[in-house]
Amino acid sequence: MASLMLSGTGKLTLLNSKTPNGNEFSFIGSDFHRNSLSFPKTSFKANSRVSSFRTIVAPKCSSSSSLSSASRPTSQPRFIQHKKEAFWFYRFLSIVYDHVINPGHWTEDMRDDALEPADLNHRDMIVVDVGGGTGFTTLGIVKSVDAKNVTILDQSPHQLAKAKQKEPLKDCKIVEGDAEDLPFRTDYADRYVSAGSIEYWPDPQRGIKEAYRVLKLGGKACLIGPVHPTFWLSRFFADVWMLFPTEEEYIEWFQKAGFKDVQLKRIGPKWYRGVRRHGLIMGCSVTGVKPASGDSPLQLGPKEEDVEKPIKPWVFLLRFALGTLAAAWFVLIPIYMWLKDQIVPKGQPI
């Protein structure tokens, strides 16, 4: 039944606007009913809805201090938003990832919809898939790009072992590495893709800065990730488990890293009917273009997490257990929402 839960996303319309600091960005939205939506160029409150659809505005602040506050720093719980916890989390999750997680949260039609803004339009493009895991997203990339030109990077050897077993990916380069410290030279790739990885980054701004660095002039980054819930219980479990950014945060992180033409496209299963109350593990696709060669103009301090620092085993086990329990909530959400979609009359928000 789970494989039937997600079956598509809606048609989209593009809204061009500007942030308060003058940087242009675009927002692409869908009501998941295959009806186009268009919004006037004005501001809405964060929880307002148009046709049962939550709108998005550009970030109101541009200072580094305001970003730190807005992005809910790692001192908050988020028990799996650290590399060591994520490593062991995927040590076990990798066994069932393709069969349990993808059918409920990340299906082929969602993947192809999310990759569309990346403009993977040439077989000879150099593409890095950061946090590529079992290679599910990479399977979408190699539809348009020769596998020999694609590198899959992940910190989890257990996830990468699954990717190596997939025949279409046999010519891809497989690399163990850190999304916040990529082992690629500056101005290396034509496209940067990362799906379902940012939620585990202790310092998401650093990861997006790295995306900027490794791209060539005119290259495009495509980052696909979760969106923050508005329903209080889902918001609680999200903030306990891992990073669920707001749409405003994605846009601001890209702009601060130096990207231009920043666009955010909402993706999701049609049974959400445009309402993001419970959040989505795969909820948006954000793209940006590198306007100049070289490193990002953004300067950052030391990394948030020192993976070499000793940890207390009992503290680690407690964090891991609590994070895993919080994750279980988001295994139940697709089942709950699918059932509601069967019961609530079409056209009504759920």
Automatic annotation (TrEMBL):
Q: Name one GO biological process term.
A: methylation
UniProtKB keywords: Membrane, Methyltransferase, S-adenosyl-L-methionine, Transferase, Transmembrane, Transmembrane helix
Region annotated SAM motif II, chain positions: 172-185
Taxonomic superkingdom: Eukaryota
The protein's GO terms of the molecular function aspect are: 2-methyl-6-phytyl-1,4-benzoquinone methyltransferase activity
The family database entries (PROSITE patterns) matched by this protein are listed as: SAM_MPBQ_MSBQ_MT
Q: Where is this region: SAM motif I?
A: 127-136
Where are the membrane-spanning stretches? 314-339
User: The MPBQ/MBSQ family SAM-binding methyltransferase profile domain covers which part of the protein?
Assistant: 78-287
Which residue ranges does the record annotate as region SAM motif III? 213-226
* InterPro entries reported for this sequence: Methyltransf_11 (IPR013216), MPBQ/MSBQ_MT (IPR044649), SAM-dependent_MTases_sf (IPR029063), SAM_MPBQ_MSBQ_MT (IPR031164)
Q: Which Pfam families match?
A: Methyltransf_11
Which family, according to the similarity comment?
Belongs to the class I-like SAM-binding methyltransferase superfamily. MPBQ/MBSQ MT family.
Q: Tell me what this protein is called.
A: 2-methyl-6-phytyl-1,4-hydroquinone methyltransferase, chloroplastic
Species annotation: Cicer arietinum (Chickpea)
Lineage per the UniProt record: Eukaryota, Viridiplantae, Streptophyta, Embryophyta, Tracheophyta
